[in-house]
Design goal:
- The protein is mainly beta and about 70 residues long.
- Helix content is about 5%, strand content about 35%.
- Strand 3 and strand 4 form a beta hairpin.
- The protein starts with a strand and ends with a strand.
């Protein structure tokens, strides 16, 4: 199963490119996602959950920090 890293749908229901121009496909195995795939290009990602935004960061000690 694969999932797009962002769901950008225009008014016509068509998939559009993210504003940054960097589309990414992530592979899930069951309910698992490898963090190396998430942080391949950046050390920080933004997760949107409803109306809330969370920041997931990879530290210099290779730990994960999730903040609101």
């Amino acid at each position: 199963m694969s999932a797009a890293s962002e769901d950008n749908i225009d008014a016509a229901g068509k998939q559009t490119e993210p504003a940054s121009g960097a589309a990414k496909t992530l592979i899930m195995r069951g309910n698992r996602l490898d963090s190396r795939d998430l942080f391949a290009a950046e050390r920080e990602i933004i997760i949107t959950h409803g109306e809330e935004h969370y920041r997931l960061r990879l530290t210099s000690q290779n730990k994960l920090i999730l903040t609101k």
